[in-house]
Amino acid sequence: MVNLTSTDGKTHGQEEEAVTHSAKTSDADTTNGEESSTKKAKSLAKTTTKSFHIMVAGYNGAATPYTFTPPSSLVVAGNTLQHEMAGDQPSWASFYSNQSMAYITGENEPGRVYAVNITKVTPKKEGSAKTLSLKVLGGGGSDGGAVTGGDGPVASCIARGILFIANYGSGSASALQLDEDGSIVDDDAPSALFNFTRVPEGSIGPVASRQDHSYAHQVAADPSERWVYVPDLGADMIHRLSIPESGSACEVDVVGSTKVAAGSGPRHIAFYRKKAGDHIYAYLASELSTTLTAFRVHESDGDLQIIGKPVFALPAGTDPGANKENGNTRTTSEVAVSPDGNFVYVGTRGDPKEDHVAVFKRNSSDGSVVFKQWYHSGGKNLRHFSLSPDADALYLAAAHQDSGSVTILARNKTDGSLTKTSAVISDFEQVAFAGFFTGAAADL
């Protein structure tokens, strides 16, 4: 079992209680901002013809690949994994860019992850579009896949040939070795497992219903692939794992933890580095406090050093609906940084009508952020979003769990604004994930 103090004997208190408020933005301003971007989005779509693949998965037990072709075509691109083939609650996928592989986690108890081979299928009818074929290696179902070592695996990432898993329900992180062909070496147990606890152990955090113990909500590798970070919503910590140069999952270890504000509930973290050798910056979306916090990653040990104060992911004057027992009604979900490093995007949930994606302007000199604007996302309970893999990330796919929909938004790379397109999936029940992906099978 791993205590939440770092291995050097320190618990780093980084995030301050004070929160920076954004400039007030009225509903009218938001609407006008969206309308003013419409012409730009249409102009962009006319010059962007590249198609993109998106994996969509949800708590309905299905995982389906789609193809998005700008400006508005969004169609099924292959077969659906269903009937528990990738677990009964597939809610996250990571992709091995060197292989035609996806790793889909099912939020089961005990947790399992499914290695899925993605191949091209050439149609018999001449002139028909190629499609994708999804096949679970070793067989799917409740007894298939690989054991993650914990309950409710909710996220994963890949670094140096190692598959990292965040087990939300049991508050743990695991490392699974991948073979050269992308298969998981050992299906029966992870190569390394790290169980986290609150400090002091057995204590309950400020948001009692969500912080009765550790809840590992994500695993994310930094751009150098030296460290994997684990936001722990239940313990108000960000744990740090070292990635060995050897690429051996057995040698992964916990090397430290960063303490954040009590009751903030760190959920997801994203990184930015302009080029190899430059400073690395991290951006944390804290779910329970509805904030974005900027950090600089220490070059030698990967420690997170806070920049300024946490910034609200809501326009000033917006009521977060705070509740002592359950936290804010309006919460954050996903976070991403634009490829040029000029903007940070944060999903916000809890709006009674339609959720939003908040846009922050990033200072390239010191990595700090300020709230700029927010834009309607196209549905309710924006659980996940992803940016398209083109050089400018011109599109954003937003997955809405409650409305069962995925909406494609066009991104203006100059001012960071977002505009809803007419490309929508409207009937994917309990959708939890919509991730753009590339790889050998993605170029059709």
Structure characterization notes:
By secondary structure, this protein is mainly beta. The chain has one domain (19-437): YVTN repeat-like/Quinoprotein amine dehydrogenase (Methylamine Dehydrogenase, Chain H, 7 Propeller), CATH 2.130.10. It has one helix spanning 27-47, and strands at 12-13, 52-58, 63-69, 73-76, 90-96, 101-106, 112-121, 131-136, 146-147, 153-159, 162-167, 172-177, 192-195, 220-221, 227-232, 237-242, 253-259, 266-272, 280-286, 291-297, 304-312, 331-337, 343-349, 356-362, 369-376, 382-387, 395-400, 405-411, 418-425, 431-437. It is globular. It comes from Pseudomicrostroma glucosiphilum. Residues 1-44 are annotated as: Disordered. This is 3-carboxy-cis,cis-mucoante lactonizing enzyme. InterPro entries: Cycloisomerase_2, Haem_d1_sf, Lactonase_7-beta_prop, WD40/YVTN_repeat-like_dom_sf.
User: So, CATH architecture?
Assistant: 7 Propeller
Beta content comes to: 35-45%
Oligomer: single chain
Specify the CATH class: Mainly Beta
Principal-axes shape call: globular
Mean pLDDT: 89
CATH superfamily: YVTN repeat-like/Quinoprotein amine dehydrogenase
Structure classification: mainly beta
Helix content: under 10%
Tell me the count of domains. 1
Question: In order across it, which strands form the biggest sheet?
Answer: 1-17-16-15-14
Tally of strands: 30
Family: Belongs to the cycloisomerase 2 family.
Region (Disordered): 1-44
Protein name: 3-carboxy-cis,cis-mucoante lactonizing enzyme
Biased composition (Basic and acidic residues): 9-27
